[in-house]
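I am still getting used to backbone structure tokens and would like to learn alongside you. Please make up or recall a protein chain and show it to me in full. Would you write everything just below, so we can both look at the same thing?
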Amino acid sequence: MRPKKKILAIALASTVLWLAFLSGQALFYHRQGNASSPSPIPVNNPSARLSSYLQTGLTLISGEKKFEVSPQELQTWIESYTRSYTDGSEYRVNQDKIRLYLQGLSSKINTEPVNARFSVSNGRVMEFTPPQNGLTLNVQESLKNIVLALVQGQNDNSPSESNGVSIELVVDTIEPKLSLDKVNDLGVSALLGRGESDFTGSTNSRIHNIGIGSGIFNGVLLGPGQEFSFNKILGSVDTSSGYLPELVIKGGEVIPEYGGGLCQVSTTLFRATMATGLVILERHPHSIPVRYYNPQGFDATIYPGVSDFRFKNDTPAYILLQSKIVGSKLYFEIYGTDDGRKVTIDGPHQYDIRPNGAMKAVLTRTITYADGTEKEDVFNSSYNSNSAFPVSRNPLE
């Protein structure tokens, strides 16, 4: 054969082999995304990567949940075989084994959606359950992510960790059939704002009083334009209301008073109304810095007959108050109709801090309404020193 013809033949053969390789790659990736094709997938350049995986294992991630795949489990996913046209020993990923593992893992991820429940009796919500989305593990898409990581190596969806590679699982969201706007006609359809405080270190009696007091406000409905008075809803604070005595400083001596800790409730509700952007009509800071209400300047003290916490529902529909205690934290959530207002809070900022603990604080809230207008509220607080208790201190602090 002449040299020129020989060169042309070699070029033609190379082209044919290259096209065959590209066709094989296209078929491989097509099968990889096809749920009906569970055939094992060869692993490219496996030695170093698989050696690392088989030593450290993998981490599968779903939100905040992490699932460790041990090297022993991983060994069942990757099988060796002899390539027919080279007689060489190679590795491939067994999709069936991974699919079975993911199907078993789904029970730890899948959650059923929760329908909204809402019932009103005598102007008060007796039962309220906000809707919750359900979750379900997308086995096929998660399988695809795992196979890609094993076959092609680490990618953007597989962030490196010290214990190996972590792969993001694909989880689908299932919306409940009943949302809030479908189960009530009061306009309570969205979470408008949330407040929280921490009462870690409280005595048992103080914790008891916080539970009693916060429960009184759970389920309170407030119509559009209606004003809220903490003291009016709170009612009497004595043994008949279920409160326990708590030691307070009053009249220059330490004496037990019923209801100690109720200011934890008013403070947390104040924070929720601040976040919601409701009109604050009356708010008073405590006389001294109280550690339960950190950061200082974001509190609201109450005392029946003396000081109250009041606000107004200036939204176009009803609002609903919900309280809950989780561990040592108290939460208030306010539900209603989202009218487009946005709230930004600056602070609280403490200043003029004295060596004896006395200080001042400023808290600024800016509300931007749907029409673009803005309103700024400034809340100033001045605290005396803890070492210089006034002669009479609010027993509900």
Observations:
- The domain at 37-174 is CATH 3.10.20.800 (Ubiquitin-like (UB roll)).
- The longest strand covers residues 342-351.
